[in-house]
TrEMBL record:
It comes from Knufia fluminis. Zn(2+) 1 binds at C27, C29, C95, C98. Zn(2+) 2 binds at C48, C50, C53. Pathway: One-carbon metabolism; formaldehyde degradation; formate from formaldehyde (glutathione route): step 1/3. The lineage of its organism: Eukaryota, Fungi, Dikarya, Ascomycota, Pezizomycotina. It catalyses: S-(hydroxymethyl)glutathione = glutathione + formaldehyde. Keywords: Lyase, Metal-binding, Zinc. Its cofactor is Zn(2+). This is Putative glutathione-dependent formaldehyde-activating enzyme.
Length: 191
């Protein structure tokens, strides 16, 4: 079966509820599930083609958003969580039994430090912010996707109403570049 973009994308995008209050994510274990409680909606939800983000079976993209770390708590079976790659900028905490990434936390100095990366599909509920853009689209080639079929992927995203980028969205990339300029003293700390 041809790989799909993602279950939340394949049949069109359902707009979320701007006042979504949050909810509880759970891993895919049949019992003793890891649960993570989010006390607000996410922001910057996006499709991510990178090789580091967790994707559901047979999906080419992850759907991942961010939430302030103080609005995330591991509510059960925290002992089942393992960091996938301690050296990565985003340390992803995955269930050791089912492999699902429950949250990603930035451990290094980074403009997004203080924001956790989460997959809201793990709540089983609707209403979360809908994907705002497709990022790291070319990165699916690193996962083995045929380069000569990339036009069809980008066209599908545009049909869905999402812009495609091979990094993050322009506002987020500008934010990262601004932080780099401030760190290098080329921009004032307060703009
Ligand atoms: N081509 C690489 C890109 C990996 C990458 O840079 N991923 C981004 C976005 S992940 C969520 O949007 C990132 O911030 N990575 C930091 C990290 O994952 O530690 C690839 O595909 O691997
Ligand atoms: Zn699990
Ligand atoms: Zn990613």
């Amino acid at each position: 079966m041809a790989p799909s973009l993602h279950p939340a994308l394949n049949n069109g995008i359902t707009k979320g509820n701007p006042n979504h209050p949050g909810g509880t994510l759970h891993c895919h274990c049949p019992s003793n599930r890891v649960t993570v409680t989010l006390s607000s909606n996410v922001a910057h939800n996006h499709a991510c083609g990178c090789s580091k983000c967790w994707k559901p079976n047979n999906s080419l993209f992850a759907i991942v958003g961010v939430i302030p770390v103080d609005k995330l708590s591991v509510s059960s079976n925290a002992s089942k969580l393992r960091i996938i790659d301690e050296s990565a900028a985003i340390q992803r905490y995955a269930c050791k039994d089912c492999g699902v990434h429950m949250y990603g936390r930035i451990a290094v100095e980074h403009p997004f430090k203080g924001l956790d990366f989460v997959h809201t599909e793990l709540s089983g509920e609707a209403g979360w912010q809908e994907p705002q853009f497709a990022g790291f689209v070319s990165s699916i080639i690193e996962g083995g996707f045929p380069p000569n079929e990339m036009d069809g992927v980008r066209r599908r995203f545009r049909e869905l109403g999402l812009e495609t980028y091979d990094c993050l969205s322009p506002p987020l990339m500008d934010l990262i570049a601004t932080a780099a300029a401030q760190k290098a003293g080329r921009l004032p700390a307060k703009l």
